Hints:
five-stranded mixed β-sheet; elongated; Rossmann fold; Heat Shock Protein 90; alpha/beta; Helix Hairpins; 3 domains; single chain; 11 helices
Amino acid sequence: MKASPVQVAGLPYRPRVLVVDDNAAFLDNMTELLGEEGYEVSSATSCAGALERVREGFDVALVDVRLPDGEGTSLAPRLKELMPDGEVVLLTGLGMLEAAVAAVHAGACAYLLKPCATPELLLTLEQALRQVRLHREKRELARRAQVTEKLAAVGTLTAGLSHEIRNPLNAAGLQLTVLERRVRRLEDAVQGPLLEPLLLVRDEIRRLDHILEDFLQFARPREFQPDAVEVAPLLERVRSLLSGQAEERDVALEVEPTRVAVVRGDEERLRQVLLNLALNALQATPPGGRVRFSASTHGGEVALCVDDSGPGIPADVQARLFEPFFTTKASGSGLGLSIVHAIVTQHGGTIAVEDGLLGGARFTVRLPAMTDAG
């Protein structure tokens, strides 16, 4: 069975093809043909028009070498500069050698002689899409390696530092408890002015203790023995734990029915991952919105997704979300998603964020599927 363009590209959307040619009939034919094959097609009749269209994005651009306001060989590198992950295929009527030389010099991944046969066109597009996929995977691998390196360095530092801070913090907390008991023995008129700052300090000590707990968990994640974790009960458990907060915020918590039976991992730690992601989703979703859990199987992996209908996450923020101490919140350690990343990595999985189907963000945790061999 022939793979669809979406499968070839490995994208969460229909691959986008930009066709740049000043022949109206050719553009109409390409739009109809590629649309039927599963591509999303946009078009332009000039270099200027193509540069305008780039704002909408593309995965592969089919560019005629001769355009009314310039040469396709000059346009190709400009398109590549604006869309580094995209690929350009030149359309030319030149001889074979001249076409190959022009394509290489322009940074195109391939060229097609006009008129081109449909099978040749579709095959060239598939090859270009595979290149697009490789570009994205390479960039993602580099990002993950960078995050992992930072996590390791910060983990070593925070382990010792957290213990050094926790000891005096515990002592301060104990003395504060003693002081609170003594204040509560005083007359009511005297208690008020003394209790207010005392309780404020107590709450701040607790907040610091929670931050330290994040540090320690991040620095030294505990070992676990992977086991079969039932997916549906796991999702329902997380929904149940957060139902009160969701009701207070007037946000609907949904669990999409799933046929995924089990995943390999530690139930408590996976619950922690989903709770963290869902809490972030709840905080980002306005009243009347939705947060949805779902699960699916792809090859040898299980994908656990958390979608929300919030405002989404800008691309520049998405790229840094799993970095330690990075946060967009006014308070917090900035380690929540770093801990999530560490837990997922410990499970042999991956985590990614992208624009979701509900209009907000989608976090996808991919884990090895449970096999018969365990």
